[in-house]
Amino acid sequence: MPWNELFRLGRRKSKQQSVPGTSGASEQHTLQDTRAAIEELSQAVRNNPESVEIYLALGNLYRSQGEIERAIHIRNSLIARPGLDPDLKARSQFELGRDFRRGGMLDRSRQAFEDASVVLGHTEEIELELARLAADSGEFERAAEHYGRMGRALAQAHFLARQAGECFRQGDTTQGERLIKQALTVFPASPEAWLASVVQATLSGNIEQLGVSLQSACANIPAPQRFLLLEGLLEALSAARVDNGGGSGTKALPLARITDLVQASVRVLASFPPDTLLCYYCAKLYLFEADLESAKHWLEKALVLNADFWLARLELVSLVLTDQELTHFLRDQMAYFISHARKSKRFVCQACGFRWDKTFFVCPRCRSWHSILFRQEFS
């Protein structure tokens, strides 16, 4: 009987023994399904020890259960088998590479994938595994090379930008700028590459360069993704403030220079056709400088464009409260609700619905690229 039929048989047997219930019960049923499939495949291996396909399937199931040592043992037993077809041996080496990666043995994983590529060639599947290994090891430029071979420009630019960020942190500005230029050549709309450029200009206090980078970035990045750039700009300004000690490993800038950077940023954002998020971030920049009147002006503009933009309304209420005569009790209650509302997760993956309070370029749940959106309407 083919191994996939055995797997389905194991699932059917498990389902006959289980009763649908809560989500916890559903997870338990899934575990039972997998264990039943492992038992069926183990029996099939005992009955037919020459069946390589069953061995491969059994190893995959062990890996899915976190039983890495058993999975590795199965792959090695196949690889050492005399007379094994070269393609099947290469497939075993490929799966062994996945086992090693799952077990955190990155160097051994890379070697297994390289061994598999001798027979299978540098297939997209192998290139993808090698790219992930390089990224996990912090070898971002190597990861970019692998993604480039696959024609995945978005991911290639992402890792080139990450390597550029590392170069800037180490003081190698020339190499960092070269990598950003390369990333933008590969993918001109890369928010990661533009963000690295904007952050570098901000932390170095280069007002002219910040204006040029921010202008080009907003012109090239799709409007719904500009907030990725502006969130990073605010974080960089905060890291460079004198009263923050300049942040970890960051040289502090004089307050006057921070003010000039904020003013230059607002001028650039104001030069684009107004949209809700641009107005909101102009307000956030003024709030950073404690210019409350200017912040109110931009928040009101944001609400004209989208009356349901909950975060702009929240910030506006917070500012207006400072002008109101409220009892101490009511002021405390309003402050409590506002502080908790600010903790609501602002960002959502449009692919799977995952919500987070931090920006991301790859969804932590579904691994989709650039699927993040700013939650403008509260639900």
Count of DSSP H/I helices:
18
What sequence of helices (H) and strands (E) makes up the elements? HHHHHHHHHHHHHHHHHHEEE
Radius of gyration using CA atoms only: 27 Å
CATH C-level class of the domain at 3-103: Mainly Alpha
Determine the mean pLDDT. 86
User: What's the shape?
Assistant: elongated
Q: Would you report the number of β strands?
A: 3
CATH superfamily of the domain at 3-103: Tetratricopeptide repeat domain
Strand order of the largest sheet: 2-1-3
Uncertain residue segments? 1-23
Alpha-beta classification:
mainly alpha
> What is the name of the CATH architecture of the domain at 3-103?
Alpha Horseshoe
- Fraction of residues in H or I helices: 55-70%
Account of the 3D structure:
With 379 residues, the chain is mainly alpha-helical. Among the domains are: 3-103, Tetratricopeptide repeat domain (Serine Threonine Protein Phosphatase 5, Tetratricopeptide repeat, Alpha Horseshoe), CATH 1.25.40.10; 122-210, Serine Threonine Protein Phosphatase 5, Tetratricopeptide repeat. It is built from 18 helices and three strands. Strands 2-1-3 form a three-stranded antiparallel β-sheet, with no helix packed on it. Helix 7 (124-136) runs antiparallel to helix 8 (140-149) and helix 17 (310-321) packs antiparallel against helix 18 (328-341). The chain is elongated and about 85 Å long. The protein starts with a helix and ends in a 5-residue tail after the last strand.
Task: Summarize the topology.
Blueprint: H1 3-17, H2 23-47, H3 52-64, H4 68-79, H5 86-102, H6 106-120, H7 124-136, H8 140-149, H9 153-169, H10 173-186, H11 191-203, H12 207-220, H13 226-239, H14 255-270, H15 276-288, H16 292-305, H17 310-321, H18 328-341, E1 347-349, E2 355-356, E3 372-374
Antiparallel strand pairs: 1-2, 1-3
